[in-house]
Amino acid sequence: MSVVLITGAASGIGAATAREAVRRGHRVALADIDLAGATRIAGQLGPAARAFELDIRDEAAWETALDAVADQLGPVEVLVNNAGIIHTGYARQLSPAEHRHMVEVNLLGPINGMLAALSRMRAQGHGHIVTVCSMSSFLPLPGYTTYGATKHGLRAFHHSVAIEEREGPVTFSIIHPPGTRTPMLDQEMADPSAVITFAEKPLTPEKVASVIVDAIVRKPVEIVHPAIGGRVQRVAGVFPRLMRFVIPKVAAMAKRRSTGLVPAPTAVPEQGDTHR
Ligand SMILES: NC(=O)c1ccc[n+]([C@@H]2O[C@H](COP(=O)([O-])OP(=O)(O)OC[C@H]3O[C@@H](n4cnc5c(N)ncnc54)[C@H](O)[C@@H]3O)[C@@H](O)[C@H]2O)c1
């Protein structure tokens, strides 16, 4: 059983992963910028779980958190880099601060975490780093511009480090969940520009958590979900001309499917607007 640090553990996929990891016997550090939320979840999980305040954008805070976890639970053996945010809307509708916020949290945050954990794991002679990424790391999608860009970048960083460290003691897994019913998805539901997310039936956070905690033991290189559909999407993303043709059709289907789920499914931008 391992000491597992999970970022973004106050909510959604991170909270479900913390629950599942404790259920399977791990000691779990729930790290989040929302300390009250992480403390509430940890309080439900018993002595194997502790909450820690961590803003993943802050390099120094990573060292403080890793020291605190080592003191209270033991040295971190598994890092689940999960915390992430989204600002929905077309690129031109978002402020520079919103674009920057996504880059800082979704890309620089996990980079900070990987670098901080990697040197400690190398020194202790073992460790596993799990990156929670997104299917948008393969697909250019309207309404997910900078979010997708951060996930493309995160995937590139993750695999590049894993290749650099292939002879070392640290192992790496990356997981790409599809739409998952969390507060992040609720935020997307409230914005018609992000309607494409309803092309697929969302998963529960518990399902994604089970895949993540399995990865702690099995150490897969990369997981897409669903296995077949995910592979098709991964290949499709390589062909932008194909995407221009397919995406408006998928968005129209997703808009129909979202009726009844989205509070006010109005004003989905027109096709020509999408691909300027
Ligand atoms: N929900 C989905 O449909 C979906 C799909 C694919 C990938 N993902 C990815 O899964 C991960 C978790 O998403 P979720 O849906 O559970 O989101 P969520 O909004 O439910 O939870 C995100 C958590 O991250 C925390 N957080 C935000 N900024 C932080 C910071 N600077 N430092 C530390 N913690 C911070 C929040 O407080 C929150 O607890 C994200 O990386 C997301 O991109 C989500």
From TrEMBL:
Database matches in Pfam families:
adh_short (PF00106)
**Its GO CC terms?**
membrane
InterPro entries attached here? Answer: NAD(P)-bd_dom_sf, Sc_DH/Rdtase_CS, SDR_fam
Record bears the keyword Oxidoreductase: yes
Q: Does this entry carry the keyword Magnesium?
A: no
Alphabetical keyword list: Oxidoreductase
UniProt GO molecular function: oxidoreductase activity
Query: Which family is annotated?
Result: Belongs to the short-chain dehydrogenases/reductases (SDR) family.
Query: What is the protein name given in its UniProt record?
Result: Acetoin dehydrogenase
Species per Swiss-Prot/TrEMBL record: Streptomyces lacrimifluminis
